[in-house]
Write the C-alpha cells for this entry.
Amino acid sequence: DAKTTQPTSMDCAEGRAANLPCNHSTISGNEYVYWYRQIHSQGPQYIIHGLKNNETNEMASLIITEDRKSSTLILPHATLRDTAVYYCILYNQGGKLIFGQGTELSVKP
Amino acid sequence: GAVVSQHPSWVICKSGTSVKIECRSLDFQATTMFWYRQFPKQSLMLMATSNEGSKATYEQGVEKDKFLINHASLTLSTLTVTSAHPEDSSFYICSARSARLNTEAFFGQGTRLTVV
C-alpha cells in the first residue's frame, strides 16, 4: 500500500505557483521522497526527489519538513502543459515504486 | 533523463490470443524492470519486478502463468499476456532502473491493450 496522502485534486491559475502537498508521517530513515507526474495516457515522468534537504531543478522545487513527515512540490510558474496527475512516492532506492492515488492538478487559463 | 521505449503503443487482439509487449532501455543497462497496469481513472498498480537473468517476482493477486515476464538481457524485458480476455484490457506500463544510477526509475510511454 502507498504510504503517502495527497489531496485528490487541485486547481491553479496559469502563471501562478502550484503548491502540491504530500503527507508521509510513517516515512523511514532510508526512504526518499520522489515526485512523478502522469499526463493523460502517457507513462509517468520523473520530476524531483529528496531525502531531507530541499531540492530544486529546472522543473520544480521540493520542500521537505524538518521531521520529514510531509513535503510540498512547487511548480513556480504553472502552465497549461503542467495539467497532470502528480504522485508523491516514498522510495527506498533499490526497492519498488508504489503509486498512491496522486493529485489531479488542473491549470486553468 | 534516460529513455525507456515500449512497443507497441497500442494493440487490439481477439479474446483467447496472446499478446507480447516489449520494454527496452535505450541508453542504459536496466538491471531491474517493473511492470504496471493501469485501469481508467485509477493509479498505477505494480504487477511484477524482474531482474535480469532471474525469474520475476509477482505482486500478490497477479497470476504469473497469465502474465509471463522475461528479462533476458540488460536492455529488454517482455510481458506476454496469455489467453487474453476483455477484462485484461488496460494500460500497461514498464519502468526500468539502472544499477549504476540506482536512483529514479524511468518509465516507458505505455501500451494500450484492448481485447475484443
